[in-house]
């Protein structure tokens, strides 16, 4: 039976890089976690990256065979995820045909989202890949063998662009294999600096209720927090190129207070910065949601691809906040931008800036009117300067 949405977990590796290599891929039901398909194969002598791409291809093929329309692809290979998203170049000629093949497979689905997960979140695919590597090294019988790659339908225009970049090695950003890590300080004047501000207090934040698209105003204390935050931002940034904000009133009021102290640039609303849509949970406490929707809550907490009933998943929120960040990096090179938003979008921006896993979202606490600062460099580099600074709120 065809399924609408699936999660693909894929991995690959080699004993020696290059050496005896293999891959593993698992296809799951996103709501229940049920395994719908497994693929694994020993592929002889190859590099880690080749095996990782082969695992992704096998997982996408299995998802297509199941008739899936939406795929959430998860890997612990930062390189493959960033290259498939078009953010890193593919300079290794041996990887370009594999990336192009994966991009063509993407065109068979309505939606494919790529996400990095830590290895401990990818244990099933990792175990299959290790078994396949053992088989390639002659240490164990070969496991299930994936079918040979098939001809696939032509991808949509956006996917054609990814495939073309994969085939030619063109992309924005950099490949970690060619950009050495360094502790050396980088010049801040080259970076686009984002000052991320969570809005001030509302009645719903005081009562610890889900506060998504409901347009609730700031409390008196929230307005005082906004003024204190404005003073803090003005101290951090003598010159601000723009103030962008979620279109909801609690953010706009906070943004207007900030703008008044940093040269009064116009506040520009951006719909991509709006809070997550919590659907039927809007306005309810966590305890009320636990009592009324226990299964749905557990599924939501376990996966960023799951949305609250009639709501929006964190994967969807991350897609739009990523668009907003990319626009700001492009529009304001070397300048400072104040971004006023909500707890979920800011957490997701910081998660991606720190290359962290999804567990980061549950472990990071962001106060109302807290300030975080990150620098975005033209070559794709990121420097997180501070997270949830609340020193300006000490007297409130």
TrEMBL record:
Xref: CDD domains: HP_PGM_like, RNase_HI_like
GO MF terms held by the record: nucleic acid binding; phosphatase activity; RNA-DNA hybrid ribonuclease activity
Biased segments, Low complexity type: 164-182
Region: Disordered, residue numbers: 164-189
GO cellular component, one term: cytoplasm
Catalytic residue positions: 199 (tele-phosphohistidine intermediate), 275 (proton donor/acceptor), 275 (proton donor/acceptor)
Superkingdom of the organism of origin: Bacteria
Residues annotated for substrate binding in this entry: 250
SMART domains per the UniProt record, alphabetical: PGAM (SM00855)
PROSITE patterns the record matches: RNASE_H_1 (PS50879)
Domain RNase H type-1: 2-142
InterPro entries membership: His_Pase_superF_clade-1, His_PPase_superfam, PGM_Phosphatase, RNaseH-like_sf, RNaseH/PGlycerate_mutase, RNaseH_domain, RNaseH_sf
Pfam families, per database record: His_Phos_1 (PF00300), RVT_3 (PF13456)
PANTHER family: BROAD-SPECIFICITY PHOSPHATASE YOR283W-RELATED, GLUCOSYL-3-PHOSPHOGLYCERATE PHOSPHATASE
Protein name: Bifunctional RNase H/acid phosphatase
